[in-house]
Amino acid sequence: MSNSKKNSRFKAAWQVISPWWISEEKWLAIGLYSLVLLLDLASVGLAAWVTYWKKDFFDAFTEYQLPRVWSLIGVALIISTLTVAATALRTWFCQTLEIRWRRWITEVYSRRWLTDSVFHRIEMRGNIDNADQRISQDLKDMVNQTLDLSLGFIKNLVSLVSFSIIIWNMSGAFSLVLGDWTLKIPGYMLWASILYALVASIVIEKFSNRMVSTEYEQQLRDADFRFLMMRIRENSAQIAISRGEKVERKTAGRLFSRIEKNWRLFRMFTARINIIENGYTELGVILSYILIIPRYFAREITMGSIMQLTMSFTNVRVGFAWFVYKYKKLATLRSMLRRLAELDEAINAHDDPSGIRLLQSKDTSFIQVKDLKLSYPDGTPMCDVRDLEIRPGERWLIKGLSGAGKTTFLKALAGIWPYGSGTLRIPDVPMLFFPQETYLPISTLKGALTYPLDPDTVSDQRCEELLAICRLQPYIPEMNADGYLWSRRLSPGEKQRVAFARALLLRPAYLFLDEATSAMDVDLEKQMMETLLAALPDTAIVSIAHRPSLEPYHRHILVIGDK
Predict the structure, then answer these.
(1) Statement: residue 76 has pLDDT above 80
(2) Quick one: angle between helices 118-125 and 66-113, nearest 10?
(3) Residues 149, 333: contact at Cβ < 8 Å?
């Protein structure tokens, strides 16, 4: 990988990690991090204390000094108590740090994703997958892994220095006789651990360097499979009615086979890492004894010194091989940061400024469409819309063949379809858009009716009146009940009536209906339209419909595409 590409990825990763640490909560972040770090350093100090305790304890044992043994047992109880307290406090404050960071960064990404229809534009571009899962899952894992690895690295570094000093002072010098020349290597156990860890790090990087890309691909494929399962759950009724289980099983099998195929690579690299990690650990234990044996049998060290040296050598060996032991976690973090950097780039991306010009002004009271040409995201022409003006109180019916661009025209008026050319002048007044499938948020029925308002700002009495007007009286007693998923409980026709109740409540200056009565019978459609026109005489209504029964409620007709 080139240096410029590495620098680019590092910069992108830093842009994901750093914002909280320089935000308005920076002193809280730094304070909690420092507190956790101090507790980590305290645990390192306690671990170093244990090595000296072991030396004294086993020396007292071998010398049959019973009073001293009992005294050291008391010291062990003190060390154990302090270790338990430090560990518990460290866990508490680290989890506090983690949830505060996760809350802050999730709010930031959610706000950016759910502002100015960014989430919709990302879906239209289709250049990244599962943005929602990146916010809900990848951010959580990124925070957890970043804290774990950064704190672990600093703790490891301090531990490495502390135990290196112990080994340097205790391991003495190794004499290597070459003919008439004798080479003395001071602190030889320290140099042996450095060399041993260096070799292991080179080996693991050599044989497992594709772990990052494999982990990244695994996350993509797992996300696709989760999305399919969610789609099946959301559309369970339609799938069951269509007897589509076989097709869905086939699709699920195909997506899981992609997971399985990549998993073979992931498994191979994981096995390599495990072999190197475990081999490094097991051989390291043997190596420590091999290095200690000559000095012990030369009567240069005691049994207690052996225990202290062995423990210290293990800590130093593990410290120098931190990269070996954390390789899998580092690979996972790098893949998550890559996914989040892609999301960051997608959120910041701007659509082609040469697209449709949307001009919103308080100085105009009507919608003006001029030289509008709609196209697909790839630039392929879709349709032309003739110049027109839509004034307050007017009724427009948009007709045309399926796929001609009728719904896209409404999306352009809403400002969420930038692809094409021309100018749209939009008054700065309340507008409401209803698609064929009415969106109901996860809320009470009152919350679904008042959306996007805060339901607490609307009286129950007013909501009950609107539900009754729209022939939804049976649901009034359950209007404020929690625990129902109304998007599933209500039929398509009932959801469309909730939309009409919402329009009567919000009273927009412009109301756009995209097949908003398609699930109603003709008599119910007539009642809803007459109620709407009577209650909102000054509201401009723009409807898309294929039914001729809707034509009497509109004075103007706009045909898009071929007749």
Answers:
(1) yes
(2) 90
(3) yes
